[in-house]
# Entry
Amino acid sequence: MNAKRKQRKSKEKIEQIPKDVVAYYLPSPNGAKKIYFTRDTILLMYHLIRLRYFSREMILDQYYILTGKELNNRTLYSFIGNSRMPLSHFEDNYRIGKTKFLYVPKYFADWLLDIIHEIPGLTELTKVTEFKGSHYSLKTNKMIGGKDGIRKIHLHDYHTRRLALKIGRRIVEQCTDLSPRELNITYFFPFNRKLISLVPDAVIFVRGQRYLIEYDRNTEPHFKLLGKIMGYFQMKYYRGDTIFFVFDNISEPKDNRLHVRIVNFIDNLYTVPFGDSGFSYYEKTQENNVTLFALPEVNALSQITEAIMHDIVIDERQENERLLEKCMTERIMPYDIVSAELVEEPDSPFSLILTYIDDYFDKEKMPLVKLNYGDVSNPDYFEKLYERYKDDYAMVGLVFSSEITKQYYNMPHNYFLMSLYIR
# Structure
């Protein structure tokens, strides 16, 4: 009887090692407990160190960004425990509402940052930020795990992280031509006060290309927002960058038009002179080839995702062909469309030309130009289109994302410029 009991116990002690394991971690050097890691979960922990603090939802989004798969609860909860475990909870006073936050303890982070260099293929993925002189590296920012220096989790910072991760997740969901490893989406959120003036609220790297987010919760006066713009056109470091200004904590306009805070922000870019330069803030950004977006939070996720996707993967001709089919099969405007054709001229601003029946039963042609909702260059471009083509066409169609269902543009020359949210 005793022999059978011993045999049963010995079988129970046989370790069940998961497949694809590349390393194991001992929370206690002399203990028997082992925590196993695959390439995916090792990489997850590296990126969580970069986040510094995170909610359960953010962990799941980060894993999906890295793998295109969902992290199962059993694996996640096996990582959580005391300060010797891979993940540990902050105290309750760090909560925001009902949301709890976790961090990567230093003891585990030390082990992870040593072991990751021994796993083939993973070091290459970290080189997007880990290089000499990088503003975004673990070394520069002393990101070594733990919760030192985190006295409070601010709502502004939490919302910025949450949005950035949702953008990454959406890109992976929509990008069928590139794997998560090829996209190599990596984040940086500043906390080092020496760097705070050099970097925005969030930086997203996609295939090595840098995108910046400034998150506004309706707390800063407009002159401070213009002050942020100044850094982007004064420093060559930002030349060619794209910066997304996201406006949150604003009421929903009753007329469903772009919120007045965003309209005023864009107006100030065009009308406020920069010092004695004789140029507006907008004109100065153009000198440094900087692209600025001003987006209400309600449209930020879809439009930042689309802007990045158009940069890295979307084939223009395929998109134009899809638009062509939509124009012929759906009722996109209050006129009957007779025909639609692609514009083949490479220098033309137009993608398609529609032939439609107007109010007088005459055939008219209307060219379509694709634009990014939120791009602050749009008001300038609207005027240029009007002046250039008002004598050539009865109307020009401006094609924006079909994801826009709130806060539409209040269009100038709306008898000539027709907004079509069909892209």
About this structure: The mean pLDDT is 92. The radius of gyration is 26 Å. Residues 155-174 form the longest helix (20 residues).
